[in-house]
Specification:
Length: 207
């Protein structure tokens, strides 16, 4: 059980699409750091049997459920894109639940610090719950190239996602640390290890 004095501090980890934040998070986890992914939390809160899914089905109708009772994300996305009011309704329902899910999961950390990985750390205001922010940064051409290799998507779609995410300047403005990931995976892992050793020397996330 953590005493208040040894409670882990929280590092927010973010970066644009194709920056390599997932690879960085995986290496932090391999080093023994407790990692919570905001995207995973967003999926957990709408699993069958959870109250949120029942409310979504009551509000939008059974069409947003698949035959096996899981949420049909595609159908829901179509509905909320067509009507901004519906998107606001959904966000009002889910955001507090996701926040609680993340907080509960972070509270289970036994490592000296824990990491909240979120592509929307800055836009969603989640950075306010962290003591320090690490931005994984990469040149835009490289972000596009990596995403095209990884996802079955078009360059136009990748550019649209880049536009929707916080501007690079905005992200970097909130950063305490910036890891420029413009090399190979080994170089990224070496940088993660360097930061990890530095973070272990910090109290409460600040030097």
């Amino acid at each position: 059980m953590n005493t208040a004095s040894s409670k882990p501090w929280i590092l927010g980890l973010t970066g644009g699409i194709g920056s390599g934040k997932s690879a960085a998070a995986e290496h932090f986890a391999a080093l023994g750091v407790h990692v919570v992914d905001a995207d995973h939390a967003a999926r957990w809160v709408v699993e069958p049997g959870r109250a949120a899914l029942k409310k979504i089905a009551e509000h939008f109708g059974a069409d947003v459920l698949q035959a096996d009772g899981q949420l049909d994300r595609g159908a829901l996305r179509t509905l909320i894109f067509a009507d901004p009011q519906q998107r606001l309704w959904l966000e009002a329902l889910l955001h507090p639940l996701i926040r609680d899910e993340i907080a509960q999961n972070l509270a289970q950390a036994t490592s000296p610090y824990a990491i909240l990985v979120s592509p929307l750390l800055v836009e969603s205001g989640q950075h306010a719950t962290t003591q320090r922010v690490l931005v994984i940064d990469a040149p835009q051409a490289l972000q596009i190239q990596r995403t095209l290799l990884r996802d079955n998507t078009s360059e136009d779609q990748v550019r649209a996602i880049l536009k929707a995410q916080a501007s690079r300047e905005e992200r970097l403005r909130h950063a305490d640390d910036v890891l420029v990931n413009d090399n190979d995976l080994k170089a990224l892992q070496t940088e993660v290890e360097r930061l990890h050793h530095y973070y272990l020397t910090l109290r409460g996330g600040q030097s």
